[in-house]
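Hi, here's the filled form for the chain we discussed.

Project: internal
Contact: R.S.
Residues: 296
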Amino acid sequence: MAAGRMHADELDIDDALVRRLIAGQFPQWAGLPVESVDSAGTSNAMYRLGGDLVVRLPRIAGVADDIAKEHAWLPHLAPALPVAVPVPLGVGGPADGYPWPWSVLGWLGGANPVVDRIAEPGLLAADLAAFVRALRRVDPAGGPASFRSEPLGERDGVTRAAIAGLRGVVDTEAATAAWGAALWAPGHRGPAVWIHSDLQPGNLLVSDSGRLSAVIDFGCVGLGDPAVDLIPAWYVLPASARGAFRTAVGADDAAWARGRGWALSVALRELDYYRETNPVMAGIARRVIGEVLAEG
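And the returned structure, exactly as it came back:
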């Protein structure tokens, strides 16, 4: 894999390409400065366009269809949500050697939460729970399946493969035991609901006071098991705020066990895949695994 790449099939994307795409398809924005956004994101390259816009370009073919999904469903979801979400402003098409759709959205200010530096963990837990509950209440009619719509048990093979790949990196015996325990949890028996599916620190923005101000990157959004959106309990919140989040979001024992399993599975796969190419993502995943295993 080439230096600086996270995926073997990742495209080369740079400022010059973004300028050409904007000039060719959105001439009204052609004079605005273009600046790469420093992000640990793995699916899309992001470029600030002037002061109020951001350009999002898929890095790999597997996420190219997310552009159309976001632009179709974000306007439907946004009015029901308690915090800001991206506002789609335009969809670009293939050009100048770039083969997929890409998008222009409104820029949302704020910072990604850092677990060890959350000013008011209890308030952030309440904010996250309010977002999750509001999203679940949106009418599911016609909604697409989420990126993580499969039952937890269907991830058994890939999760165990990730554990095997991390031998010597994490406590694989404890990880195997924790994963096995999660598989014993009863499955979701109600209807599928709207879930974001990827409520990780990089997809959340907080204000200076530490309150949740926006949720971004809805490429994984769709209908699925509500337990998937419990992963911020381990990905975002310190252990001291986990109980408040669980209470506020209304998770029963089975949902909480599945949510813990989702957090562990996602983190194991991320650490296995990104530990050499994305130190920020790998560091977050390593911490999540440690938090799950510390719970016994």
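Let me know if anything looks off before we file it.
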